[in-house]
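Slides due. Your pick:
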Amino acid sequence: MDQSKFNKITGLNFKYLKNDSLAAIVAFLVALPLCLGIALASGTPLFSGIISGVVGGILVSMLSGSQLAVSGPAAGLAVIVLNAIEDIGFFEGFLVTVVLAGFIQLAMGFLKAGTIGNFFPSSVIKGMLAAIGILLIRKQIPYALGYNTDYLGRLDFWQTNEENIFSILNSLLVEINLTALIITIASMVLLIGWSYLKNNTIKSIPAPLLVVLVGVGLNQLFVVLGNGMALSQDHLVTIPILGADAEFSELLTFPDWSVISNPQVYTIAVTIAIVASLETLLSVEAVDKLDPQKRRTPLNRELKAQGMGNIVAGLIGGLPMTAVIVRGSVNINAGAKTKLSALVHGVLLLLSVLVFPQIINMIPYASLAAILLVTGYKLANISIFRQVYRAGKGQFIPFIVTIVAIVFTDLLIGIIIGLVVGILNILLNNMRNTYSFNKKDYLEGDPVRLMLSEEVTFLNKGIMIKTLDTLPADSTVIIDASNSTYIDYDVLEAITTFKNEGAKYKNIKVELVGIEKFYEKYN
């Protein structure tokens, strides 16, 4: 079989093998601690996060039509998973809901429900990306400063205790780990400086990979010097070591189907399927916007791929997964060109447990924090705010509201709030655009010509009534529907009422142009 036929069958392209392989390493280094941290926050075995990362990386990337998206366990589902396990009572029972959610997603894909992602305004998608950038920066601060006792929840704005984000940040500044700070600063300087290099040969080496090597090297230097500055293991990546911590068979967990008669199982499965699908669709659309080649992901195919991924993950003990914008953006920034990068990243996640866990456990969290800090800045760059602001209030208001809502609540709620604001903004604009009236060409005493918009809905009724009621007595008004393709019955009724009653009372002459066809439609 020649290379082109193989590429067509598998969907893989080895043309950019170097770029994709190096990007895969960076994506893997970022995904590994995220998989572990999300599993911890979900109240599940740590290896369940790795399983989802492996399945998402290998199986989903093969089935997906996206070239740059990376799938795995999602932080947005952590609370749902934690509560679901509490409701069902045990992890094995929860795995049944993951399998069922996968089948629901598969059905959604065949029913072509993926198009729902097309109904989200661009301003909301851009707001989501910027908010994720802010969250990335915020959540990496403990790692950058060497204070990382709680991976996911510590920097949420609203705390269950009496602290808030500002008091917590103040405590972090007091508890800075000097070695972690040195590694973070060195990594940031390397990452930023690398982009200014002129030599393309040297620049082809991904800076994030060098950052990890520098971090490991600095910490090992402190270990050799024995000066007490070496980082302890809680500041380093930690994954299970086969033979020492566990056997491979002990890492897999299988669903307990005895819960299949529990109604809660189906409620949870539907919830996971809807939330995971929505987050996936928004994430792949955001990744498509970041793709330098501007390729479009087939959304229904993506739902099918995610469904198969969740079915397999649930059957062997994995967390529910989605396409994850953080990993996708890291993948793109590291130079990925095709889906081969996501696949190799999945293989590396598997090998990290089977072959070289000791090496992975030498990587400082501070090195990974530096990579994510730069990624976060690229997503929430001030130039993006300027660009959306220049596009006008209609774009800027939903953009800002989405950012604030996500930062102060969570990803799903924030997106919904942003979408609602975007829809309200569209409705308000629609209400204002009932008609056009050229004041510059109008001379006092001339007829007032109201050119109706192309589509006039019931939302325009209020502004139409208000306009007609404020027309001066003894005047002439021409209501011109020549350019209109649709006029709602309520608006026609308002115009008729004015012509037959209000206009006569104020001695206003009303002329209707091109509106007869709409009267005929309703009679």
Remarks:
- Residues 15-419 form one domain.
